[in-house]
Structures are given as C-alpha cells and as structure tokens.
Design goal:
Helix content is 28%, strand content 22%. By secondary structure, it is an alpha/beta fold.
Length: 366
C-alpha cells in the first residue's frame, strides 16, 4: 500500500522523523554503555508509550515520569518507573499506589512531610516504594540544601515503613551553556555532589543510585564523579535549544511542526498557521531569538507568535514562500510543543508511516 504524503495532513501537525529518532537512541545507548551509566529517559518529552518502548528496546533500563498520569501510561510498557516529582497530596498518592504490582515504583522527594505521606499510602496499599533524596546542586528549584539535611532525610527513609532508601537524585537544569563551555559549571556541581556523597557515606547511607543529568549536559555526564544514572528527555527528539548549545546537530532534530503559509501580504515576513498553541511561546537560547526555526532553512526564524499565527522573518533571506507552501518548524523547546498536540505523526523519507496518541497529556481519568 502506498504511504500517504505529508500533503495529506491538516496543519499544524507534529511530525517525528523515525530515522533520526533511531540515530538519537543508538547514540545515547552507546554513550551510556561506554561510560557504565544506566540510562533512564524522561518520558515527559514525548508522553507516548510506543516511543518509550523504542527507548527500552534501545537499551534504557527504565523510564522517568513527572506526573501520576504519565506513570499510569508508561506502566503499560515499563516495569521500572521513577517519578521525578515529589508525591505530595492524597489524590496523587492514591493514583500512584494503584499502579500494577508488577511495576517497581520509585520517587524523588526532599521533605519529611512528603515521606510521611508516601510511607502511609504505601503501607495502606501493601507495596514498597523506592525513595531517592532530591538534592539542589544549583538549580534552585527543589532539593535539600545541605549534606546534613540529606543524611537526616535518608536516615528517616531507612526508618520509615513501606519505603526503601535507594539513593539520591538531582537535575542540573541550570547548566545551559554551550557543551564545550560547561567545564567550570560541571566542576562546581561535582564538588557540591561530592560533599553530599561523603556525608552520606560517613553516615552509613552510601547511595546505591546517583541519578542525574539533562540533555544539555548529557554528553559530559561521565565527568561527574559518582553518577550512576542519566535521565535525558529531550534527546530522543532534540530541538532548537539543544542544537544551540551543541548537544546535537541540526540534522539530529527529529521533531518538527508542519505548518502552512497563510499570508505573505506584509513585506519582510510570511505568516504560518502554527502559533503558540502548536509551538509553545518559550524563549530560546540562541542570540537570534525567536520561537523556532525552519528545519530546512534554519536561518529563517519564527520572529513572533500569537495563538494561531507564527511570523517568519524573511529580512535576512532571498527565499520567498507562497501562500499554500508548507514548512517544518523546529521549536525552541520540544517538550512544551508536544504537550499541545493530540497525536504525533511518524514519518520516514517524507511519507507518513503512522501516528501515535500523546497518551500522557494532562491528568487523565481521576
């Protein structure tokens, strides 16, 4: 049967290049194996169980999620699920405890209050949940601040019922400089981490798991002493920000939003039918600014966006699209864009091979 072409898709449409996804997965698996690191991808980027299955087949040891609904969705294909979000609140805990008994669930947390709620819920459900103490190593968002705090919380986990102390977790999201310039930031992070590791070891609480990493810092993860596990999310698709910091090449961007040119009336620009409700209105890391760039013409930037309109800046190019032409936009931040779409279209060689429902969007059924 002849495969349909992209011209048959109604725009805006989220596209995933299967060949590039395969290349990205093979590259991270090879890196993790080379450096003796476990690879637990964060599925918040795609929220698609079929894509998580591809990651597991490529060598991932388990998956990371951010919400109970993502955990429910990924439990259909993964038996090792880490919730990288403190499980606070009865509703969130009840949903987590209803995950299949075959799922090995672990969570990250940074407070006694979260631990007490988790312990009580797990005991009531008759299951044991792994716990990682979350550290703040510079992100300044969540995480215990001092080594002594980590020791106290790890000790409390050891003493609590229905939970098991597994180790520590952190997210270096504050390191967004170009990959080649991350040396001083990673050294500072490593020094900070070493202080925590020494304190925990001295207290008889040496962590079995030291889980961290991000896509921008992915390829230098092996420089962080003590790290055992990486959790990149974006690298399955990559995006304009990832390319801007040198964590991927433009040719490794596997996600784009297919859009149609709907107006060329205003000189120096063209308007497409992909705005903030398809691309997400997030600032980028590039000096040229904007909210995305064209896959086949990365010098053409989405200068501004409103809800349904994206404005292509044509002032620096001789290319002039016509009304009805189609373009593919690589957004600044792929995770935010994917979350705006009901489905992702799988493409290969310019033809559609199938589609996946973005099953992990929202909160799902209560």
């Amino acid at each position: 049967m002849e495969r349909p072409s992209l011209e048959h898709l109604e725009t805006p449409a989220a596209l995933v290049d299967l060949e590039r996804v395969d290349t990205n997965l093979r590259r991270v698996d090879a890196y993790a194996r080379q450096h003796g690191l476990r690879w637990r991808p964060h599925t918040k980027t795609h929220k698609v169980p079929e894509l998580a299955a591809l990651q597991l087949r490529a060598g991932a040891s388990g998956v990371t999620v951010a919400t109970p609904h993502e955990a429910e969705v990924m439990a259909s294909i993964a038996r090792d699920v880490f919730l990288a979000y403190s499980p606070v609140g009865a509703a969130r805990l009840e949903r987590l405890m209803r995950l299949p008994a075959t799922v090995q669930l672990s969570v990250g947390l940074d407070s006694l209050e979260a631990l007490e709620g988790l312990s009580a819920a797990a005991k009531k459900a008759g299951r044991t949940v792994g716990v990682l103490v979350e550290l703040d190593l510079g992100m300044r968002r969540v995480g215990v601040q001092l080594p002594a705090d980590a020791v106290a919380l790890a000790r409390a986990i050891r003493e609590a019922e229905a939970v098991e102390y597994c180790g520590i977790t952190f997210y270096p999201g504050h390191v967004r400089s170009p990959v080649k310039e991350q040396g001083s930031s990673l050294l500072e992070l490593s020094t900070h981490l070493t202080g925590f590791l020494e304190a925990l070891s001295g207290g008889g609480l040496l962590p079995q798991v030291v889980s961290g990493g991000s896509t921008p810092t992915l390829w230098r993860s092996h420089e962080v002493p003590g790290l055992t596990e990486i959790r990149p999310g974006i690298n399955i698709f990559n995006d304009r920000n990832t390319a801007a910091v040198g964590a991927c090449t433009w040719e490794e961007c596997a996600y784009s939003v297919l859009a149609t040119v709907v107006s060329t009336s205003v000189p120096g620009q063209a308007v497409i039918d992909a705005g903030s409700k398809a691309l997400a209105k997030e600032e980028g890391f590039t000096p040229s600014g904007g909210y995305g760039a064209l896959l086949e013409r990365p010098d053409v930037v989405i200068r501004s966006i409103s809800e349904e309109h994206g404005l292509l800046d044509l002032t620096g190019t001789e290319w002039r699209p016509r009304v009805g032409d189609r373009v593919r936009v690589v957004p600044n931040h792929v995770c935010a864009s994917v979350n705006l779409h009901e489905r992702l279209w799988a493409v290969r060689d310019g033809a559609v091979e199938g589609a996946w429902t973005v099953a992990g969007r929202g909160w799902g059924a209560p």
